[in-house]
Amino acid sequence: MRISLRSFGVKLLLLLVLVVAAAQLGTFLIVSRANRAEARRQIASDLIMAAGEFHRVVAYRNDILATGASSAAGDYAYKPLFANPASDPATLVSALHSVRLRIHADVATLLTTEGNTLACTAGIAPGSDVLRRFVAAADADPSPSPRAAGYHYLDHELYSLVIVPVRAPDIVAWLAVGFRIDDALARWLKDLTRIEVSFVDQEGQLLATTLAPTTAAALAETLPTLGRHTEMVTLPLAGESALVTTRRLPAGEHAATLALQFSLDEKLRPALTTERLLLVVGCGSLAFAALLSLAFARQLSRPIEALAAHTRVIAAGDYAARLTWDRSDELGRLADSLDAMSEGLAERDRVRDLLDKNVSPAIAAQLLREGAALGGEEREVTILFADLRGFTALSERLAPHELLALLNRYLDRMSRPIEQQGGIIDKFIGDAVMALFGAPVATSHPAAQAVTAALAMQRALAELNVELLAEGQPALALGIGINTARVVAGNIGSSRRLNYSVIGDGVNVAARLQSLTRTADYHTDIIASAATVTRCAEAARERGPAAPADFIARPLGHAAIRGRHEPVEIFAIEPTALRVSSFAG
């Protein structure tokens, strides 16, 4: 039997094979994703446990050293020597070495009550601010046995230190003892937790690690790009994916980083056997589906040509033609589906006709509900105007195709924050953007959304300028004006071509506010009217008193607006130190 690629049997074969393939692929992907999710969950739990174990180990060893140091500080063999600031430095160092060996510490230091170093078994700056802070913290401890602990660099090595008082009977000095953060500690922690451990200073230099040299070098190179306290990130290290957690170890101005990692590939190796078995089963299922489908591949002679002819009618654009079959089998249902498809294509053409007249999805949805008729309604809307400064100078410097590419790149970056905050692009006017918030679809806080979008546009332009400067192109600047007012919003144009927009005095005010950003005395790129700031304040009150401020509205006084008799109170919009949150929706 000759099988044509256009025959119904082949289509049935492909359908069944695709269904089985999709099911098998879906199963494989679900299992694979579950395996990876579970592996990541287990690793995350182990990393958190290892970080906690490290801090418990440090606290435990500090407690032991503090107990031993307190005992040594009260020992009459040492107390007279430690309590006398005029003691011979060499004798003090010898005594400190004796204390260090006695309590199994790696370093011992004697400090004055002000935190200055009298003697130390390792190299240390005489006026260490870190040790002074340790002394101040211990001095503030109200307990009968005051002490303080922390991390500090000695001879370019990281130590965990704890200080205890030397009494005679009042506190006359402080004894600091500690242990080194080194490879031995890292290996011990790895044996305890089965997690790879590394310590890195703030310059990215390894202090201690359990990793192989190549992996450790890759980790040290990557760590400076991460935060000092990262819960879990995935890093490619030495050809494998590893999950890494970091913890900051404060050591004065020179902090260190504890990096804990576990290989994701190693964790997944047992699961890969199951996934390979699933692949074998999936291939067998596909072969069975192909054989089953071939059993149903028969030469069909009756309705196929009619169906093909009907599809050609639809392809020609005649969506009104219908099949008049009276049958309830699969081909009958296929005929019904073709009729439904004709109706869907006709509806698609109607939608396309509407979309030819309006570009915003929100406007298109409104037109589908209400129809494309001239007219509008009065409503409160926040209008945002953004203009690219120095565009004329750019036009003179750049070739037309370069200018167009730069302009499109700029408008793309500026459009995203507007759309993310629920606004719509009303129009592009050369290098300027006019956007609406609160029309055609009403939103809860259009003014706050507009201000949030403006601040996001500032940040997006700063990011774009970094890219442009790296490419040797000039940086861009913009000004943004925002006004909230009652305007007429609706479809404007002719019966053949419509454009959704807003008209009214509020639109003119927004455009003029954008022009005022060029005023040097204002020192701002974003100017909003008092009406917009008032609506933002109302939105902030709805969010609650505990919510952080998103921006600062700096009063600029009243400004005369061309075309208006009364001046407008205006404000400069400036971001706070906190990240601006989203009002979208």
UniProtKB/TrEMBL annotation:
Highest taxon of source: Bacteria
InterPro entries: A/G_cyclase (IPR001054), Adenylyl/Guanylyl_Cyclase_3/4 (IPR050697), HAMP_dom (IPR003660), Nucleotide_cyclase (IPR029787)
A GO molecular-function annotation: adenylate cyclase activity
A GO BP annotation: intracellular signal transduction
Keywords, ordered alphabetically: Membrane, Transmembrane, Transmembrane helix
GO cellular component: membrane
Domain HAMP, first and last residues per copy: 298-350
UniProt domain Guanylate cyclase: residue ranges: 382-514
rRNA processing found in the keyword field: no
Transmembrane portions of the chain: 277-297
Name of the featured protein: Adenylate/guanylate cyclase with integral membrane sensor
Upper lineage: Bacteria, Pseudomonadati, Verrucomicrobiota, Opitutia, Opitutales
